[in-house]
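Table S5 (text form). Sequence records supplied for joint modeling of the two-component complex.
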Amino acid sequence: MTGWYVYALTGAAAPPFRAGHRQIEFVRIGQFHAAIARMAEAPALSEAALQDQHAIVSAIAGKVDALLPARFGAFVDEAELAAIVEWRAGAIAEALALVRGREQMTVRITGEPESAPVHAIDSPSGTDYLQQRRAAASPPFPHVVAAIEKAVRSIAGATRVEPGRDRARTSVYHLIERGTSDVYRDALRSMPQTVTASLEIVVSGPWPPFAFAPELLA
Amino acid sequence: MKPRRTRHTTVTTAHPPRTVLPRRPAHPAPPRRGPAPPPPKREVARIIDQSQASLVDVIDNLLNRGVVLNADLILALADVDLVYVRLSALLCAADRVSPRR
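The corresponding structure-token record, covering 319 residues in total, follows.
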């Protein structure tokens, strides 16, 4: 039985095209479209499959001005996809409006956290517990993140900050207008070096807006 | 399981290409006269630019981000399935508990 492997939800359709060994087509799902390939089964998870999908989603991003990339493994049938899209149409429309004409830049910060790690307290009081939770949820590099935000404030349309599990890294995602990644990089270069000392800051992109896709299951 | 290479896999993952961005001076240096000064100390740049997707980017983008529509995720290592997540079961449950419009 052939199913749909969904690469992205899009705001509009584009002519079908070939990407590698996949034929990508755009099918209408309610008020949206989905960029799909017809397959007998989902590709097995492998590094090559991930690289393939990343390249295909990037190619789709070049065809439409608004897309929400799907997570790896989105193998569905038409009825299933239609039900999901109808169920969360509001969230999808809102996210497509946010990413329209934009692309994602990723900044990964790695190094020694600015604040000391919070150690778990045996039998904590309610206050201790809440302070632990607050410390664990806060980004480990608040000053660096703030400096990055200040540097790209005039460029970034939206921001997401994701602390790493080990508090030695944080990822910052920005949405920028398409074609302005050089301006974005220049803005990061303008950050004071004292902010970046002893840390490694890796900038990558532009990518399709993976980090700004809605949590449809939330 | 040996990863399959395809023509359009363009990224090497062992050592992703990195370009160190040079810092730009805030103002252009004025013209100097006389003997050339000693070369400035090399500044260690802390901002590294990756123009191509590293494996970290690919994994983060496709496994941690993106719209979850329906996924059977089989994380395999050396032909041994470590994790199997059937997300469609969660979808069905969420669909039943969410209010119908």
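Note: DSSP finds seven helices and ten strands in chain A.
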